[in-house]
Design goal:
The protein is of the alpha/beta class. It is 56% helix and 19% strand. A 6-stranded antiparallel sheet has the order 2-1-4-5-6-7. Strands 8-12-13-3-14-15 form a 6-stranded mixed sheet. The longest helix is centred in the middle third of the chain and has 46 residues. It starts with a strand and ends with a helix.
């Protein structure tokens, strides 16, 4: 159970600490005082969603912490669990269990085993048939869980095999389409006869063509200068050094260096001469280069950013074509395995369906008993189970809740029958039944009495009182009948100091409980209202 709840900077709550107790804890107060913020804070430490708008104005973060006494839990220390969650305006957040950092999902998973929170809008889940199977399976519990775990493994395998078959073009038309496409792509690349490095070479050639006139003038000038001046000059220098080479080793060394330079420059001059001749480009050569580059660019857009990538893609699709052409045996093996898996799944689905039908009848009977207690004596709740054609994560069963609220009418889906007050009572009936199999230690209800008459509220209060004998119950209410059943009553108020609003919570003594019940029932704390409150209190 929740023993202490500490809330800081949530909405109009500045810094609030409240100690809860065993049994039925009732929270009342005027509208807008912060009751729902308290329940919302419990939802947050249970892993619920948090909006930055919930952070108190002017503050940088919100912090919620709870001390929970749950000796049966595997995560408790000496029976105590400390859970906290902190969220900052900049998006940074942290969740902790007993001081250890955990993810939101880990927090949610742990708290789902301890606290069951029923908000104002949770009854809407009952209007979604997809949720009904989870209620039934929760009621069945461990009897079904092992089979579900075995089925889920098979379902994962079944889904994987189907995907493999699809990826392997198990469909003949798809296979033919894919082969046509791959063969077209392969042919397009092969016909191009791409070579690694040719794009760079072609780019250089195109650059030369674009600068042909400038190149020609410069190369002619270089060629003329080298042949007419440089080579002749060096040759004269060599002849003069030869005349004095006998005068010392230093002159011989310089002569050798000069001769080597002469040969290098001669080689350079020949290269320049050849390059000069290559600066003459005809229009046909230019068109060929442009067309080739256009082809390469087109292939790059389709198959890869470089020629190397295109050639790699060609090798990949060659392998894929060969694989597709030899897939018959592979696909046949997958189909055989898929059929075996389906047979195993069908067997488990039959066993699960049998349990669900048997337990669905028991669940219906138990809920009908609870509905009678909750002032719906003519209601007939039933669990309808039909078989679906395709496998789902829950098997082949489709579970839907039906109800008939008046004698002589036929049962119809909940969404077409129940009013808001009826939905709250149906949900409470389900929670009551599930509480007998659930291991949660705390049930939280936010305005469970919405849309109910006084008589129905009285019945709901009695039911909450019964549940609270075995589990801690926290309940926000506007009903005097329910408030009168509280083992512990808390009054939530707000006050304005300066330019800020603050929420406060106070545990009421018996005289204050009577006054609060009187206020709820009549709006004014009159003598008659107080006498009525005392009668309600005695009846609890």
């Amino acid at each position: 159970m929740i023993t202490t709840l500490h809330i800081k900077n949530v909405g109009i709550i500045d810094d609030l600490t409240v100690d809860f107790n065993e049994g039925l804890n009732i929270l009342t107060g005027e509208t807008g005082a912060g009751k729902t913020l308290i329940i919302g804070s419990i939802a947050i430490i249970c892993g619920g969603r948090f909006s930055k708008e919930m952070i108190r104005k002017g503050e940088e973060f919100s912090f919620i912490e709870a001390n929970i006494y749950c000796p049966e839990s595997s995560i408790s220390m000496d029976g105590n669990i400390i859970v906290s969650r902190e969220i900052h305006l900049n998006g940074r957040s942290s969740c902790k269990i007993n001081g250890r950092l955990v993810t939101v999902n880990e927090l949610k998973e742990a708290m789902n085993q301890i606290i069951d929170l029923h908000g104002q809008h949770d009854s809407q889940l009952l209007l979604n048939p997809a949720e009904h199977i989870s209620y039934l399976d929760s009621f069945i519990g461990d009897k079904l869980q092992k089979q579900k775990e075995e089925y889920e493994k098979l379902f994962e395998q079944y889904t994987s095999l189907k995907q493999d078959l699809k990826n392997n073009y198990g469909d003949e038309q798809e296979k033919a389409r894919k082969l046509d496409l791959l063969n077209y792509q392969l042919n397009e690349i092969e016909v191009a006869k791409l070579k690694v490095g040719e794009e760079e070479e072609l780019e250089n050639q195109r650059k030369c063509i674009q600068n042909a006139e400038k190149l020609k003038q410069s190369m002619n000038a270089i060629d003329e200068e080298l042949n007419e001046n440089v080579i002749g000059g060096i040759s004269n220098c060599i002849r003069n050094l030869e005349k004095i080479e006998d005068c010392g080793e230093i002159y011989q060394e310089k002569l050798a260096i000069l001769k080597n330079s002469y040969y290098d420059i001669q080689e350079l001059a020949r290269d320049i001469s050849y390059m000069k001749d290559e600066t003459d480009f005809d229009e046909e050569t230019q068109n060929e280069i442009e067309n080739r580059l256009d082809l390469i660019y087109s292939l790059k857009r389709k198959y890869g950013s470089t020629i190397e990538a295109i050639l790699k893609y060609k090798d990949d699709i060659s392998e894929e074509i060969e694989k597709i052409q030899n897939l018959e045996q592979i696909n046949e093996n997958i189909k055989i395995e898929l059929e075996k898996t389906k047979q195993k799944m069908n067997t488990i689905c039959e066993e699960m369906s049998k349990q669900r039908k048997e337990q669905g009848q028991i669940l219906s009977e138990k809920i009908n008993k609870e509905l009678a207690i909750l002032e719906m004596p003519n209601a007939k709740f039933s669990v309808t189970i039909t078989k679906q054609e395709s496998f789902t994560v829950n098997g082949l069963d489709k579970v839907e809740f039906f109800i008939c609220t008046n004698i002589g009418e036929e049962a119809k889906p909940l969404v077409k029958i129940a009013s808001g007050g009826e939905m709250s009572r149906i949900m409470l009936a389900i929670k009551t039944v599930l509480a007998s199999v659930d291991k949660v230690s705390t049930l939280v209800f936010d305005e469970i009495d919405t849309g109910m008459s006084g008589k129905a509220s009285k019945a709901v209060g009695e039911k909450l009182k019964t549940i609270s004998k075995t589990q801690q119950v926290l309940c926000i209410t506007h009903s005097a009948s329910i408030a009168a059943k509280g083992d512990y009553n808390y009054y939530i108020s707000k006050k304005v100091q300066g330019e800020k609003t603050y929420t406060d919570i106070k545990e009421l003594n018996e005289d204050e409980v009577i006054e609060e019940i009187a206020r709820i029932s009549s709006g004014d704390i009159t003598k008659i209202a107080k006498e009525h409150a005392k009668e309600l209190r005695k009846a609890s």
